[in-house]
Amino acid sequence: NPVLEVRDLAVHYPLRGRRGTVRAVDGVDLQVHAGSTLGLVGESGCGKSTLGRAVLRLAPVTRGEVLLDGEDLAALRGEALRRRRRDLQMVFQDPLASLNPRQSVDTILTEPMRAHRLPVGPGRVAELLDQVGLPASAARRYPHEFSGGQRQRIGIARALALEPRVVIADEPVSALDVSIQAQVLNLLAELQERLGLTYLVIAHDLAVVRHVSDVVAVMYLGGIVEQADADALYDQ
Ligand code: ADP
Ligand code: ADP
């Protein structure tokens, strides 16, 4: 059974100052199996980010369902919803834009746990940093003191803080130098294996996702137009 399933998902935005809607996502069905990676590719503006955010209810869902272990997130309320949200975490394109520059890495990594009223065990921050290949001394420093690749490692560590089961990575390497991209993709693959994570990796560039994906889905104008095993893509 899939860990993450999207059924007939639609996100329609109102057009500013005009009648009608933008069908950013329109009738998408996806299944992502435990421990696997679904790569979602397509040109800019086709609806990838909106789809990723709609899964986490960060975009307004017009229609359809998002199921985690077969459970519809929209049916959950209160503590059950809070608990379920921990299972789904997001890694963003630009770590600098998504990390608060005034917060130390220690604060950035412990904030998700505080927000969920979870105890922060001694050594937890060092453990998170170690998982992403950063030294424990990074905890005292601030985002601007790191390189782009290191900042994305911090963004990944923050996503791991709540021990999620599913990670949605939206263009996780497209803001990085080409030489650093492979390192971050390799890290994501290692973490998947070690922690048994299930991934949805979004990218406009097929070259970015095909090496880390088991299945690649191609999005066009809000819909999935093609889906194939990543292996099949190497022959073309
Ligand atoms: P992608 O991630 O593939 O670049 P997006 O999901 O960002 O695509 O955008 C899909 C479409 O939805 C685009 O036409 C975009 O302009 C529109 N869109 C995205 N977010 C919003 C929003 N908050 N309000 C209105 N339209 C939006
Ligand atoms: P990307 O293409 O990298 O996904 P965008 O530059 O399209 O990002 O969007 C940046 C932010 O602006 C996103 O939060 C998106 O939801 C929002 N956005 C995009 N298009 C529109 C739009 N037409 N109206 C309002 N907000 C939008």
From TrEMBL:
What's an example of a GO molecular-function annotation for this chain? Answer: ATP binding
What keyword terms does UniProt attach to this protein? ATP-binding, Nucleotide-binding, Transport
Keyword Membrane: yes or no? no
Name all ABC transporter domain ranges.
4-236
Q: Does the keyword Transferase apply?
A: no
**Family listed:** Belongs to the ABC transporter superfamily.
- Descriptive protein name: ATP-binding cassette domain-containing protein
Query: Could you tell me which species this protein originates from?
Result: Nocardioides imazamoxiresistens
Taxonomic classification: Bacteria, Bacillati, Actinomycetota, Actinomycetes, Propionibacteriales
